[in-house]
Description:
Blueprint: H1 3-21, H2 24-41, H3 44-56, H4 62-86, H5 91-97, E1 98-101, H6 103-110, E2 116-120, H7 126-136, E3 141-144, H8 150-160, E4 166-169, H9 174-182, E5 186-190, E6 200-205, E7 208-213, H10 215-223, E8 227-236, E9 239-244, H11 256-277
Parallel strand pairs: 1-9, 2-5, 2-8, 3-4, 3-5
Antiparallel strand pairs: 6-7, 8-9
Helix pairs in contact: 1-4, 2-4, 3-4, 10-11
Amino acid sequence: MSLVDRAEYCAYLAGTGIARRLPLSRTRRMAERAARLFFDRDGRHARRALVNLRLAYPELPEPQLLEMGRQSFVHFAWNVIDFARSETWSDAELESRVEVRNPEILESALARGRGALLLTLHLGNFELAIRALGRRFPGFAALGRVQSNPLIQERLARNRTRSGAELIDRRGATSAALRVLRQGRTLAILLDQYVRRGHGVYVPLFGHRCATSSGMAILALRTGAPVVPGYIVRDGLDHHVIEFLAELEPPRDSARREQILEATESYNRVMEHLIRKHPEQWMWAHRRFRRSPDLRGDPYEDPGGS
């Protein structure tokens, strides 16, 4: 464990302590000011967010795109605060702050005995969603990436799994994912980030093809597990809503490659709809369109070389 890991963890503990001790309204104001300042002064992350926003909303003026980018950084900062606060919440406190709408959609999918794939994305406070859904749906599992800092990873994992949720490292996760589905459980997959070559397919998002994991489509085709979209958004000072959407239709009869493409393209359509509905709550500062065949060169390259 490096000194950098320890320093990051100390900063995390300091921020957690502040978030718990100060009034929420004051903490949120402080976080908002810091997030806006970071966006305006940061080079790499703000630049990535603006590239994505320009690709998604070419019709909007630059000042509006800048404000959308700032708002996404603000919401991320608020999410960090709420996650820190949630470490001390009881199940009852969590339930009072996170409302679940249309749970019967997922319940109906699970009732068929093939498990269910939850299509979700980095929208709203997905950390709270993992814990809330782990409490609501026994055996709930989520596929994700392990943090590079082992101290922070252990802290995050402990809070995520307090309600019984299982975390599965996305590296080499096929056998674990199949186990979850064969046991008739829910497997949540965050499908909105870039994947390396050979791990996905290029399908449209905001009118531009981008590398998207084919894992969910392959799992659905292999197991017959239904795919249910679900997401979480903040809708108040201290309140969040998880909502499930109608189960997605499986791809039409065709060659397997075409089925994977058709299914994955439908997943991106759903995610694009949700992002457009709540653009301020999506994580825009990600190289989502890296190596897109529809764009020239690297759209995230700094023309100034910084």
